[in-house]
């Protein structure tokens, strides 16, 4: 059960949806937190936005159940990302972009789900747009998902 919760956030999403009342309210919270960060430069709002994006993107089991939510999520993220420079999400210390990894999960989850062809097509178009605009490649496996090779001396 713990492993399932770590890899698929279905239980957490259901809890959030129950508390918020509807998926539209979850997207409203996503938009409000983004605006509070963007306009008010409020770091806690950015953290809330990141947590909501991660929650929605890590969820594989409920994509079919909440297909309207995911269709709208793609639109919301499309317009939000248009407001930011392409290097905005890169961590200066690790040169890691949390959003590329998170969106890679979203696109893989949608592709592997039983979602409609319309949602799959929309996700593919969004992926293609991000690749063209930001140069992010979602076909490559993120570094943290790649296998680690250890030689005979225990070095990586």
Automatic annotation (TrEMBL):
Keyword Acetylation: no
Sorted UniProt keywords: mRNA processing, mRNA splicing, Spliceosome
GO biological process assignments: spliceosomal tri-snRNP complex assembly
Domain AAR2 C-terminal: 2-139
Keyword Secreted: no
InterPro entries: AAR2, AAR2_C, AAR2_C_sf
Ranges annotated as spanning the membrane: none
Gene Ontology, cellular component aspect: spliceosomal complex
Gene3D superfamilies according to UniProt: Aar2, C-terminal domain-like (1.25.40.550)
Quaternary organization: Interacts with PRPF8 (via RNase H homology domain). Component of a U5 snRNP complex that contains PRPF8.
Summary of the function given for this chain in its UniProt record: Component of the U5 snRNP complex that is required for spliceosome assembly and for pre-mRNA splicing.
Protein family: Belongs to the AAR2 family.
Protein name: Protein AAR2 homolog
High-level lineage: Eukaryota, Metazoa, Spiralia, Lophotrochozoa, Bryozoa
């Amino acid at each position: 059960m713990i492993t399932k919760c770590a890899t698929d956030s279905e239980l957490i999403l259901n809890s959030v949806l129950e508390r918020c009342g509807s998926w539209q309210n979850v997207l409203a919270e996503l938009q409000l937190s983004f605006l509070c960060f963007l306009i008010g430069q409020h770091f806690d709002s950015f953290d809330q936005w990141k947590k909501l994006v991660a929650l929605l993107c890590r969820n594989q089991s409920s994509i079919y159940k909440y297909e309207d939510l995911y269709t709208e999520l793609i639109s919301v993220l499309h317009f939000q990302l248009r407001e930011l420079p392409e290097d905005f999400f890169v961590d200066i210390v690790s040169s890691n972009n949390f959003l590329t990894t998170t969106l890679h999960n979203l696109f893989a989850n949608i592709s592997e789900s039983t979602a409609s062809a319309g949602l799959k097509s929309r996700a593919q178009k969004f992926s293609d747009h991000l690749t063209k605009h930001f140069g992010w490649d979602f076909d490559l496996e993120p570094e943290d998902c790649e296998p680690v090779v250890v030689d005979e001396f225990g070095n990586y």
